[in-house]
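Weekly sync, protein design subgroup
Attendees: M.S., D.O., the rotation student, P.L. (late)

Item 1: inverse folding check
M.S. brought a backbone from last month's batch and wanted to see whether the design step gives back something sensible before we order anything. D.O. pointed out we never logged the input encoding, so this time it goes straight into the notes. Structure tokens as presented (349 positions):
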């Protein structure tokens, strides 16, 4: 399928996919968007009745712009190499017994710097927001767990859809050249575990920032808050493979709508973390780069040969959750269908 890599073809690939996906997303979330708009209207009327302006978008979007700018200039590899790494070199020279090992773990430190700076920036609004709006509860930024189990099937649906998509996308050359972002993640289990821990923790903070903080702070925009969040979320994917950056637009709409529907970021985080981990596993599988050594250069080796089977097990498990949801919901679905037929039969012709 090398023709997919031709620039004249590749740029247009998202268009037919969007034409198929958009109506499905509309049907699935339209009631959610209407409810969000209705709640926003009540919220704005209450503010108007009190003669108040909503200062939350001003503070929130200023924070978003500032934090993403800090990430761009101080969370990148070039800043690490120019400022942070020399500081670590000086510490290693002054403390020979310190566990720094820059020669061995330099790239890991670089990638963890990226992860830590993103986590710090994405979670910063949780500390700053109460300084401006003392009456707002931080738990309302999608951090409540109430009702999560009732919507777990949506997480299973997303996983069931994404796994086949990833199996196709993972065959693209730019996919295996980009993932995993930590290029020596397959060198040892220590490398793999340290990277994935920082990587997945970064995704939790990202969900708090985009799907928790932004959507709650911009609730006066109604459903428009979702699309206001989509723009910076898509832009943080610049530099990644083109098709992934385009897919981030649809993912942001779906995960944002899901977060506003469930009032929680946990389902979105689980989707994001699962997909991210599977992407790394698939990239390593395409290059035969799975870890075996416990630590770099160590004598103890542990091999796991069933990664592909594990991915399929996850897919089957997601389908099983959906099957159970359908079985439990079938009486209500059938009753609703009978009610529609009865209403149609009773209408005058």
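Designed sequence read out in the meeting:
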């Amino acid at each position: 399928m090398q023709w997919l890599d031709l620039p004249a073809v590749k740029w247009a690939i998202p268009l037919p996919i969007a034409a198929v996906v958009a109506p499905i997303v509309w049907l699935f979330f339209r009631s959610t968007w209407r409810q969000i708009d209705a709640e926003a209207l009540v919220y704005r009327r209450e503010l108007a009745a009190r003669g108040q302006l909503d200062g939350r978008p001003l503070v929130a979007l200023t924070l978003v712009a500032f934090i993403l700018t800090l990430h761009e200039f101080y969370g990148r590899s070039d800043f690490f190499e120019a400022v942070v790494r020399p500081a670590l070199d000086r510490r290693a020279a002054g403390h020979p017994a310190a566990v720094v090992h820059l020669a061995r773990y330099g790239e890991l430190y670089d990638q963890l710097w990226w992860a830590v700076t993103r986590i710090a920036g994405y979670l910063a609004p949780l500390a700053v927001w109460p300084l401006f709006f003392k009456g707002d509860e931080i738990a309302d930024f999608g951090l409540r767990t109430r009702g999560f189990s009732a919507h777990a099937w949506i997480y299973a649906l997303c996983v069931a859809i994404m796994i086949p998509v990833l199996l196709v996308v993972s065959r693209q050359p730019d996919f295996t050249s980009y993932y995993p972002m930590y290029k020596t993640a397959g060198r040892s289990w220590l490398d793999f575990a340290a990277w994935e821990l920082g990587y997945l923790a970064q995704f939790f903070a990202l969900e708090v920032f985009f799907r928790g903080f932004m959507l709650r702070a911009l609730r006066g925009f109604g459903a428009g808050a979702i699309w206001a969040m989509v723009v910076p979320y898509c832009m943080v994917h610049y530099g990644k493979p083109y098709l992934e950056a385009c897919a981030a637009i649809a993912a942001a709409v779906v995960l944002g709508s899901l977060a506003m529907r469930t009032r929680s970021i946990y389902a979105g985080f689980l989707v994001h973390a699962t997909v991210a981990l599977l992407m790394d596993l698939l990239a390593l599988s395409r290059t035969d780069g799975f870890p075996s050594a416990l630590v770099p250069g160590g004598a103890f080796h542990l091999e796991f040969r069933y990664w592909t089977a594990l991915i399929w097990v996850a897919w089957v498990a997601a389908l099983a959750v959906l099957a159970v949801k359908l079985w439990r919901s079938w009486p209500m679905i059938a009753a609703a269908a009978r009610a529609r037929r009865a209403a149609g039969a009773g209408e005058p012709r």
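Discussion: The chain has a mean pLDDT of 88. DSSP finds twelve helices and no strands in the chain.
Action: P.L. to compare against the previous round before Friday.
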